[in-house]
């Protein structure tokens, strides 16, 4: 047994130089996990770095796709990356199938199946597969999708978009296009909702998840937008539901999102009493029962932001998935007798709102006014946003955070990077996870330099003492460190 163990350690040490010198793990107690989007290695002329800021990305966990000097895909578990495509794709597309087009890939729409749907400079859609090969999404169909982030989205097996005929640009309404099937118009460009008296004249944007489709539309004779959802092939006005259940009138809808049966929206609501000013409010919408709930925007942890109050909801920013919603807020505090308003994020976990911006500069994920509305994503309970041009940050709920250095797994013996399960600290799950993955040289088991010195996070401090430290991946040093600390208290 000792011989096998020694040989395994030697193999792990031999294979380890292929790994990152210091694999990133979430700091103990971290509210956010920062994940550098490192270009593929070894360096090559087309993968040395990025020339543009990553402000548009799509996710289907654990894969993240971004468009930055080409299309890159990152695996959030292994922290590996690869370049799938350059900036252009060549294809034959209607109505000029006899002419080969060389088109720019401008932004990812989302994952459709295992492929990435990419919008092109000619307002067409290309599917990019895992081998980097591209193909037109609609070989013989003549429609175009505007390059506006609010006008399209992708579900598991299709894209939904506000489309126009090509090349004469006649509005088609909202189309649904699945792989291998012709595009169909699921919402006409004008019409009347099932439970309303008004007629909408144009569609502003659309969101879709599975079979659920929501869209905003402009009402005839008004500059306001109404929110509607599709049920049994018929639009249903959300504003009428709100008025019937609460007596409040919806003046406008700024942002909305969700999936399945549960959706959220930021609305401007006018009280029934005359003379009252409208208030921006977030509502929770259940499609199956057509029920609406107005959520009280109060924080359960105001102490992290200091004494103060929420003064407004930032519009056009909401992200939601299932019963989870993320919204930017304006929070006013008094600093030396003067009101000071800052932007923060609040997370709704299904029951209450929680401020998720910490004061620690190594953990903070501040709201930046110049971030575009599509520069954040949420899938289940995973909220991800850019922290810097080439770093994504994943929010870690309080009951999933790392408790101490050798706390590397949650209570279901899964890598903490996975999230989605309670972590009670050091348990038998960490012991089993370590022994199961150590001999595979899994980066999750790489806890220390070869000298046995534990890693510091989020990055090693730039001192002469640490520059001299060497890490060859998963070695005996990590084994010794784990079992030295495993039986010690872990908060």
Q: Going across the major beta sheet, what is the strand order?
A: 6-7-8-9-10
- The helix content, as a percent range, equals under 10%
The tally of strands reads 31
Q: Residue ranges: pLDDT <50 for 5 or more in a row?
A: 1-20, 358-372
Shape label? globular
| Rg computed from alpha carbons, rounded to a whole number of angstroms | 25 Å
Biggest sheet statistics: 5 strands, antiparallel
Mean pLDDT equals 80
User: Roughly what fraction of the amino acids lie in strands?
Assistant: 35-45%
Please give a structural write-up:
This protein is mainly β and 491 residues long. It has helices at 2-15, 238-246, 428-438, 464-467, 476-485; strands at 32-36, 57-60, 63-67, 71-75, 80-85, 88-92, 100-112, 115-120, 125-128, 134-136, 143-144, 152-154, 158-165, 171-178, 184-187, 200-209, 212-219, 225-231, 234-237, 249-259, 262-270, 279-286, 291-294, 308-313, 319-321, 324-335, 338-348, 353-355, 377-379, 382-388, 391-395. Helix content is 10%, strand content 39%. The longest helix is centred in the first third of the chain and has 14 residues, at 2-15. The strands form 7 sheets. Strands 6-7-8-9-10 form a 5-stranded antiparallel beta sheet, with no helix packed on it. Strands 11, 12, 13, 14 and 15 form a 5-stranded antiparallel beta sheet that branches. It is globular.
């Amino acid at each position: 047994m000792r011989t096998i163990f020694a040989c395994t350690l030697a193999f792990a040490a031999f294979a380890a130089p292929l790994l990152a010198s210091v694999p990133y793990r979430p700091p103990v107690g971290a509210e956010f996990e920062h994940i550098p989007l490192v270009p593929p290695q070894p360096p090559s002329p087309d993968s040395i770095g990025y020339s543009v800021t990553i402000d548009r990305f799509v996710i289907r966990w654990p894969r993240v796709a971004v468009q930055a000097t080409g299309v890159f895909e990152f695996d959030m578990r292994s922290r590996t990356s690869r370049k799938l495509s350059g900036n252009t794709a060549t294809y034959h597309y209607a109505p000029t199938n006899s002419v080969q087009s060389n088109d720019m890939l401008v932004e990812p729409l989302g994952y459709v199946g295992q492929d990435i749907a990419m919008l092109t400079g000619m307002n067409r859609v290309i599917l990019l597969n895992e081998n980097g090969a591209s193909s037109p999404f609609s070989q013989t169909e003549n429609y175009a999708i505007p390059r506006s982030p609010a006008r399209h989205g992708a579900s598991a097996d299709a894209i939904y978009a506000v489309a126009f005929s090509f090349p004469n640009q006649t509005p088609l309404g909202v189309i649904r296009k699945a792989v291998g099937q012709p595009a169909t118009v699921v919402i006409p460009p004008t019409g009347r909702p099932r439970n309303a008296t008004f007629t909408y004249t144009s569609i502003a944007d659309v969101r879709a998840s599975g079979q659920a489709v929501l869209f905003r539309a402009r009402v005839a004779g008004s500059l306001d937008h109404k929110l509607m959802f599709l049920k049994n092939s018929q639009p249903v006005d959300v504003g009428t539901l709100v008025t019937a259940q609460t007596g409040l009138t919806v003046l406008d809808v700024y942002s909305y999102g969700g999936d399945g049966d549960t959706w959220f929206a930021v609305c401007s609501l006018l009280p029934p009493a005359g003379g009252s000013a409208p208030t921006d409010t977030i509502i929770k919408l259940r499609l199956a029962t057509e029920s609406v709930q107005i959520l009280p925007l109060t924080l359960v942890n105001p102490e992290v932001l200091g004494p103060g109050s929420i003064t407004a909801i930032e519009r056009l920013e909401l992200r939601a998935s299932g019963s989870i919603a993320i919204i930017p807020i304006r929070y006013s505090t008094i600093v030396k007798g003067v009101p000071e308003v800052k932007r923060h994020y609040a997370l709704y976990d299904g029951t209450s709102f929680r401020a998720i911006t910490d004061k620690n500069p190594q953990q903070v994920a501040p709201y930046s006014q110049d971030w575009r509305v599509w520069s954040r994503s949420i899938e289940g309970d995973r909220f991800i946003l850019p922290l810097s041009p080439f770093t994504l940050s994943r929010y870690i709920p309080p009951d999933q955070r790392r408790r101490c250095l050798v706390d590397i797994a949650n209570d279901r013996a899964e890598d903490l990077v996975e999230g989605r399960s309670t972590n009670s600290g050091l348990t038998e799950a960490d012991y089993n996870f370590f022994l199961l993955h150590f001999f595979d040289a899994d980066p999750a088991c790489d806890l220390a330099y070869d000298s046995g010195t534990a890693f510091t996070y989020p990055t090693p401090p730039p001192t002469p003492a640490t520059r001299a430290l060497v890490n060859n991946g998963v070695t005996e040093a990590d084994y010794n460190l784990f079992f030295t600390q495993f039986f010690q208290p872990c908060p």
